[in-house]
Specification:
Elements (H helix, E strand, L loop, with lengths): L2 H7 L5 H4 L2 H12 L1 H30 L31 E6 L7 E4 L5 E4 L3 E4 L5 H12 L8 E7 L3 E7 L5 E5 L5 H7 L12 E6 L5 E6 L1 H5 L15 E4 L7 H11 L10 E5 L2
Parallel strand pairs: 6-10, 9-11
Antiparallel strand pairs: 1-2, 1-5, 3-4, 6-7, 8-9, 8-10
């Protein structure tokens, strides 16, 4: 439909517009041509119906409830770190019962000597320090097989000397600490007066008793531990560990071990064979 005609049709009630000659002429032509008018009217009607349908569809779409955002799932609190559980290792001063199920006449109560040994009937001296009660039982059963037909032995710890950590080197108060529960190398050093001004903290050595009293050496960087950049598990201690803080970087493990053995108590029970485990 021409724009001018639309304007005119939209303003039929406006008398001022009818006074316009051009508008009167256009309106007269439209009215006289009823077929055109009907076709035009039908087209307009279709457009209006389509618009109404679209409008209704839009309203229906808007009426559809939208899914609500899912509520955020609350974060689960971190579980506290479980303490490291380790087997008890016998040490000098522990008092133990040796029980024979089939040969009670061999039962004994003994105290582990400062050299780490015990003396038993028929088999003589046995090195006990550094073993678990279960490992000592196995060793005694093997030793008594030559003497008894069916040896069955139980090792029962009656008295504890106390589990110790040895701290030495560049600390203000080198000592053997009696500990209960978990302790890491930093805590042991601080309980020993802290580092001296000459301590090489990044080259701290942890010496641990391994299988068959084999010494295991681990070098840890406690500078990183102080900054929180070293996981605690890397410098967690076990009973009877030795923490040694040197003055300078350790260049020779052999020389270090020779020096270490010269200053350690003689009842620790470490062998002269060792393994090296370094974080570097």
């Amino acid at each position: 439909m021409p724009a001018r005609l639309a304007d005119c049709l939209g303003n039929l009630n406006d008398l001022d517009m009818i006074k316009d000659e051009e508008s009167l002429y256009t309106i007269t032509n439209v009215i006289s041509n009823q077929e055109v008018l009907m076709k035009t009217g039908l087209s307009v009607l279709k457009i209006l119906i389509a618009m109404l349908l679209l409008s209704a569809l839009g309203c229906a779409t808007a009426a559809i409830p939208q899914p609500l955002d899912k509520a955020p799932v609350p974060e689960q609190p971190e579980q506290p770190e479980q303490p490291v559980m380790t087997e008890y290792l016998l040490q000098p001063g522990d008092n133990i019962d040796i029980k024979f199920f089939h040969n009670p006449e061999l039962n004994e109560n003994v105290t582990i000597r400062p050299d780490g040994k015990i003396s038993l009937q028929l088999i003589g001296e046995v090195f006990a320090a550094g073993s678990t009660p279960a490992r000592l039982e196995d060793e005694l059963i093997e030793r008594y097989r030559e003497q008894l037909k069916t040896p069955e032995v139980a090792v029962i710890v009656k008295g504890f000397e106390g589990q110790k950590i040895y701290v030495g080197g560049e600390v203000n108060d080198p000592q053997a600490l009696v500990v209960n529960g978990k302790i890491n190398a930093l805590q042991a050093i601080f309980r020993s007066g802290g580092f001296t001004s000459e301590a090489k903290m990044s080259n701290t050595v942890i010496v641990r008793r391994g299988e068959n009293n084999r010494a295991i050496i681990k070098v840890v960087d406690l500078d990183k531990a102080l900054d929180g950049r070293l996981p605690e598990g890397e410098y967690q201690l076990l009973p009877y560990d030795i923490v040694y803080v040197p003055k300078t970087r350790i260049a020779s493990i052999d020389q270090f071990m020779t020096h270490l053995y010269s200053v350690l108590p003689g009842n620790l029970g470490f062998g002269l064979v060792y393994e090296i485990n370094s974080d570097d």
